[in-house]
Amino acid sequence: MSKIRPYSMAFCGGAYGDEGKGRIVDKFVSDFAKKRDVIVYRDNGGANAGHTVEFENGKRVALHQLPSGIFHKKATVVLGKGMVIHPGDLLVEILQVKAAGYKLPKIVIDEMATLSLDTHRAFEAVLKDWEEGGKGSTGRGIAPAYVDIVLRHPLRVRDLVPFNREKVAKHYKLYQGLLRGLGRALADVDVPELGSTKLLAVGSLEEFTARLSQQAKTIAPYIKNVYSLLQTKWGDKKTAFIFEKAQAIGLDTRWGVYPDVTASDCTFDGIFSATEGIVSPSDISIRAGVLKATYMSSVGIRKLPTVMEEKLANKIREDAHEYGATTRRPRGIAYLDIPSLQFFSRVGNCNALILTHMDVVYAEHPIKICVAYTKGGKEVSYRPDQEFLHTVKPKYIELPSWDKEKLMKAKTKNDLPKEAKKFLQFIEKSIGLPVHMITTGPKREQGIIF
Ligand code: IMP
Asked: Which end of the chain is more exposed for a tag (fewer CB within 10 A), N or C?
């Protein structure tokens, strides 16, 4: 039987990523931190995630592997077992947070997390030229690192301390062999590194090992066995827990659309496996899928059925800065697609919604929403299959847009323009989940919790 754990919340991307979870996490971590200890736990993904956090003082910091809780010196930030960690990029990211003037909170890296290294990035880069397997990737070596787990030869974070030279050499030689088979020399393949604008070569075994062992020394103080920490803190029912998922349900290998899918479990169920069964997602009180309120965005080559005409899409792209934080790719913009959002919230195990970007509305454009798909005249559901999605015809309705200025000034639900209230009711009814919070503008205080 499920027993709701007090002071627990989890957030995931409810569509195809970049919904603005970071800011939501920031808000709830600071609220909890006023009264209690907070653990911010990330259970999936790696250096592929990306969002830029903007502060009132104009400072901007791009986060990738670190969850947004990193800006709260009272929080404990845990990089969990389900993550794939690139130590070099992580160290650069930590330095960037420090350089922006933030005192780091306690950071704990689960010794059981998997390493994602330049070898993986090189393999992915070569696959990209070779065949479909590498397409749709951010090039951060995420999928090959997860594949190592399935093939039973992962390098784990604990292999860094003490530094397991033999295992690292074996790993390098495996990837050297794989790349040789694809006609490339591993040492010469150029890969992206955080903090460098140029791609950098993986280098020889000696160079690769020297770099990694140096990084291992710096990262060593953060590496811990987190099992008992989690067991104690989750069990005490006093410490607040915020689970900050990476990516989004529509990017999950099982639920998204190939080839733009990632390799980790992007649903709340991933928390169960990363915590080795300590945290059952159904015990987390709020499990919110975060969505952009009035449109959807998508990076990559997938073709969404509700893709928007370029004129309005361009306007939204510029107004809402819809460019990838990790790769700078312009994001595709689509009308809200209820059949897919219903599907994602169900398979993602969400019990609430959070709508961001409520201020992205235009007086001259009603809000167009796809409420159903038809195929051959019959209504059909969303399915995670591009060939199928090519064949469906979206059925649209339009709702009136609202006074953006009035919305941006609203402090409570009652202050919202009546059209915005109606829109929220419509979303709750059609997706079948309550809206827990909305954001009404870019500033930190422009958010309303219901
Ligand atoms: P990968 O597994 O990181 O290589 O990424 C696979 C797919 O997921 C690519 O299409 C990426 O664009 C997408 N993706 C990964 N992380 C994010 C994110 O944080 N926001 C949006 N898309 C992402």
From this structure: N
